[in-house]
Amino acid sequence: MGRGRVELKRIENKINRQVTFSKRRNGLLKKAYELSVLCDAEVGLIIFSSRGKLYEFGSNSMTKTLERYHRSCFNPQDMTSPESETQSWYQEVSKLKAKYDSLQRTQRHLLGEDLGPLSIKELQNLEKQLEGALAQARQRKTQLLMEQMEELRRKERELGDMNKQLKIKISLEMSSNLQLEAEGQGLRALPFAWNPNSTDQTSGFPVQIQASHPMEIEPEPFLQIGYHHYNLGEGPSHVPRRMAVDSNMIQGWTL
Q1: Is the distance from CB of 56 to CB of 47 less than 8 angstroms?
Q2: Would you say residue 68 has pLDDT above 50?
């Protein structure tokens, strides 16, 4: 009964992993030795364990093998002659030209040109590429539109804040103006506010009213020494009552 196929994955058990490492390391070193002897090859083998321990094998000196390896890497044999260098450049140019032609042809296919030689599978692949490119373009357009909308919303919020501040400032100015106007009207309504051109009796200063006839206004009381002069023919009924009181007062004073 043969062994089953071993699944290549990391061994989780440390003991099993170490045992497997030891067995396979010894087998690899044995195979390297056999290869160097049977085929007369220069073999160099370097192994580092998981713990950092070094295991190596060299059919010759490991240092000489490494020096030969570096010389071979930095000075390849196929680049020593000018003809081989020219051939290499020619191959590189041919590859670049073929790649350029392929890109040009792909571009024409994406633009809908030269579709005749394409098979059904190639057309399906081209359709998938176009759908993918269209989806990416739409996604990018949607992203740009969302960014623009967010920017407009931010500007709208800033303008709204500025508008609120201006409304508050205007309301404060209007209230201050109304207060100043109310104070001015209160000052004009005071009784001590005198207008020299006004003849209204509500003024704070007494104004002497000129009457058309002297008898229409009752005279103010005054002190007069002597006798009142009046016409005897008028009779006592026509003498004003105030004048009689004044005459009695003067007669008492003269006594």
Answers
A1: yes
A2: yes
